[in-house]
Amino acid sequence: MAVSENPVIDEKRLKLELRLAQLEKNEACRDNFLTFVKTVWPEFIAGRHHKIIADKLERVAKGELKRLIINMAPRHTKSEFASYLFPAWMMGRNPKMKIIQATHTTELAVNFGRKVKNLLETDEYKEVFPNVELAVDSKASGRWDTNKGGMYYAVGVGSNLAGRGGDLVIIDDPHSEQTAMSSSGFDDAWDWYTGGPRQRLQPGGSIVLVQTRWSEKDMTGQLIRAMAKDPLAGQWEVVELPAIFENGLPCWPEYWSLEDLISVKASIPPSKWNA
Q1: Quick check: 131 and 64 in contact, CB under 8 A?
Q2: What separation in angstroms does the CA of 106 have from each of 101, 103, 160, 181?
Q3: Closest listed residue to residue 138, CA positions, set 151, 125, 127
Q4: Predicted local distance difference test score (pLDDT) of residue 267
Q5: Where would a tag sit more exposed on the chain, N or C end, judged by fewer CB atoms within 10 A?
Q6: End-to-end alpha-carbon separation of the chain, Å?
Q7: Residue 174 half-sphere exposure, CB side, CA atoms within 13 Å?
Q8: Which residues on neighbouring strands pair with residue 72, listed in sequence order?
Q9: Which are the contacts of 136, defined by CB distance < 8 A and separation ≥ 6?
Q10: What digits encode the pLDDT tens for the residues 148-178?
Q11: pLDDT tens digit string along 231-266?
Q12: Considering the entire predicted model, what is its pTM?
């Protein structure tokens, strides 16, 4: 390569090339969820199951998939994806979106809201989504708005949703260990779902449920039974990702060795470990 005789021009060209590369990366982050994840979470260790989940979530983002269930074993980043990075990405793509985030306790849901809110204020996020900002009066971690009219509302299963409407409802592990052991725990969560978030969904809205399985009576089981009984009921796409596949291979070998999985599995109830 010939040496330039004009270092000033070379420096300007380099700056332009670097800026172009950054703009192309930003565009890729807006279009591709997994690219966004790797950008805002540099320590992320990708596995094959992450690509599967990301593809499904992108279909939700495009409006191609309205009802999605993801059943996963613990400690495989289902919550980091579904309840932290996905709502942040969706809000960036559509700052007018209204998101309802639910989990088995209000405290946990608010913690997710705090993480999403904090991410929106980072330089890395603003580089990708420069037009998205928190509204000036957004103080609470579990209830905040964007400068474009979007809304994020965190709620515990069983809490009142009166007056709230959502374009996207994310339900993350609706059953705690205590409610799962209760004789009425699964029914209470189901009654809350049918009378709460399902009724608060905006026209054309989407619902994403991620959970580890407890029983055939848990929310996933109830939704599958309702779908089988009534063709007019919500038709869900179900993704099941156990920690160890039937062929004996780990779901996420880049992070979990088979030996570690077997050791951890011995201390976890089978109904919760298997997707």
Answers
A1: no
A2: 10, 7, 11, 19
A3: 151
A4: 56
A5: N
A6: 56
A7: 32
A8: 241
A9: 147
A10: 999 999 999 988 887 778 999 999 999 988 8
A11: 777 789 999 999 999 899 999 999 988 988 887 765
A12: 0.88
User: What are the structure tokens assigned to 102, written together?
Assistant: 């639910």
- Nearest of 142, 120, 124, 122 to residue 133 by alpha carbon: 120
Assign 3-class secondary structure to the chain. CCCCCCHHHHHHHHHHHHHHHHHHHHHHHHHCHHHHHHHHCCCCCCCHHHHHHHHHHHHHHCCCCCEEEEEECCCCCHHHHHHHHHHHHHHHHCCCCEEEEEECCHHHHHHHHHHHHHHHCCHHHHHHCCCCCECCCCCCCCEEEECCCCEEEEEECCCCCCCCCEEEEEEECCCCHHHHHCCCHHHHHHHHHHHCHHHHEEEEEEEEEEECCCCCCCHHHHHHHHHHHCCCCCCCEEEEECCECCCCCECCCCCCCHHHHHHHHCCCCHHHHCC
Q: Are 126 and 146 in contact (CB under 8 A)?
A: no
* Residue 38 in tokens: 């790797």
pLDDT of residue 7: 76
Predicted confidence (pLDDT) at residue 100 exceeds the cutoff of 80: yes
